[in-house]
């Protein structure tokens, strides 16, 4: 073919390359991995008990939050382990919690307006000893409010890495959706979040984490050490399996997930449950491959 300008020829070539990549992906769509440590039946029993306890009279489809300890136990059924968090309603309790977890620790508020907001002073990191913890606790309550308002907690420190967010939710039009992005206001303000339908395959989650604009931060941007993206992909796949196996799980929020050069740490997790409505839909339908 002939083109009136070089730019049009380059655009046409780019479209041909994208089409070839799409054909290759369609030929090898990926797979949903099996994990030997997933306890699907036990998780189902846990969900039934929680629904009976939390929604005895709630209408079908209305979701309820799962208490933190129950949410951690449910996630653990799918190999998703969260870092322990101990309440610290006063300085003495905070010191005992730190001694139990081991120094260094972080002191964090769980009030909704300060949650995950290190920029507002609601998160204090790398507290190395009792004296520093008492001083930090006093500063926190003096500047931000009373312990009853702040609801502070103590958590052990984890290896440094990139803070990310993983969410799963039910979209009325699309169904179950798996979302991924970096933690922090810039990603939220710019909408730098990637979505995939559940159940997600290994190929889809690998593309998902690489599709956000801030993805270079995961792969050694400006000389930084690349993080463990294999562990991140596995975590996304486990969340996808949980929501796909149990339609009663209508919301999962893991924030933050700190991805280090070796491994990752889930520092916060919330789960929402609802009784699944009756449906004749058999799930996602894909175009046939010709």
TrEMBL record:
Give the Gene Ontology MF terms in alphabetical order. ATP binding
The signal peptide here is none
Q: What is this protein called?
A: Acyl-CoA synthetase
Pfam families, per the entry: ATP-grasp_5 (PF13549)
Q: What InterPro entries does UniProt report for this protein, alphabetically? A: ATP_grasp_subdomain_1 (IPR013815)
């Amino acid at each position: 073919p002939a083109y009136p300008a070089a730019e049009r020829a380059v655009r046409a070539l780019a479209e041909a390359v994208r089409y070839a990549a799409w054909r290759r992906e369609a030929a090898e769509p990926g797979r949903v991995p099996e994990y030997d440590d997933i306890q699907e039946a036990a998780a189902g029993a846990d969900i039934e008990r929680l629904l009976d306890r939390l929604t005895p009279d709630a209408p079908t489809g209305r979701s309820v939050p799962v208490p933190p300890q129950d949410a951690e136990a449910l996630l653990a059924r799918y190999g998703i382990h969260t870092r322990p968090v101990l309440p610290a309603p006063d300085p003495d309790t905070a010191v005992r919690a730190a001694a139990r977890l081991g120094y260094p620790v972080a002191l964090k508020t769980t009030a909704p307006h300060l949650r995950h907001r290190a920029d507002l002073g609601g998160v204090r990191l790398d507290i190395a000893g009792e004296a520093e913890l008492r001083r930090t606790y006093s500063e926190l309550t003096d500047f931000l409010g009373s312990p009853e308002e702040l609801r502070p907690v103590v958590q052990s420190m984890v290896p440094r890495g990139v803070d990310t967010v993983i969410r799963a939710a039910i979209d009325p039009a699309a169904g179950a959706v798996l979302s991924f992005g970096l933690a922090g206001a810039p990603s939220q303000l710019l909408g730098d979040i990637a979505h995939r339908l559940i159940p997600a395959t290994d190929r889809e989650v690998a593309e998902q984490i690489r599709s956000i604009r801030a993805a270079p931060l995961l792969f050694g941007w400006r000389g930084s050490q690349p993080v463990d993206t294999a562990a991140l992909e596995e975590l996304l796949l486990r969340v996808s399996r949980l929501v796909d196996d149990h339609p009663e799980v209508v919301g999962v929020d893991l924030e933050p997930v700190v991805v280090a050069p070796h491994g990752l740490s889930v520092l916060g997790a919330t789960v929402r449950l609802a009784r699944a409505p009756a449906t004749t839909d058999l799930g996602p339908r894909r175009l046939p491959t010709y």
